[in-house]
Amino acid sequence: MMKNFKLTERFTAQFSVDAFHLFNSPQWQNGSFNTAINLGSGTATLSPQGAQVRQFSERQLQFAFRLTF
User: Fold this and answer.
1) How many Cα atoms occupy the beta-carbon half-sphere of 23 within 13 Å?
2) In sequence order, which residues have a C-beta less than 8 Å from that of residue 14 and are 6 or more positions away?
3) What are residue 15's phi and psi, to 5 degrees?
4) Euclidean distance between CA atoms 25 and 28, whole angstroms
């Protein structure tokens, strides 16, 4: 998303938001608390119910502000 603001005749401000992997959801698999897993660039955690959660990239938001003159 992006929004431009005209401040004066010469100055313009721009505010933007970028979202990466916004609709990413966890991938549930069977697992146990005694299992050690190395996923390389991904992460692995165990929930109290014993299901393993694998997410290779989390949701990220990036905010930017630009002043043009």
Assistant:
1) 0
2) 2, 3, 4, 5, 64, 65, 66, 67, 68
3) -115, 135
4) 9
Spatial neighbors of 56 by CB under 8 A, at least 6 apart, are 39, 41, 42, 43
- Chain position carrying tokens 């916004």: 22
Instruction: Please state the domain extents for the chain.
Output: 2-66
Phi (first) and psi of residue 67, to 5 degrees: -115, 120
Q: Which regions of the chain are under pLDDT 50? A: 34-35, 50-51, 53
pTM of the model: 0.49
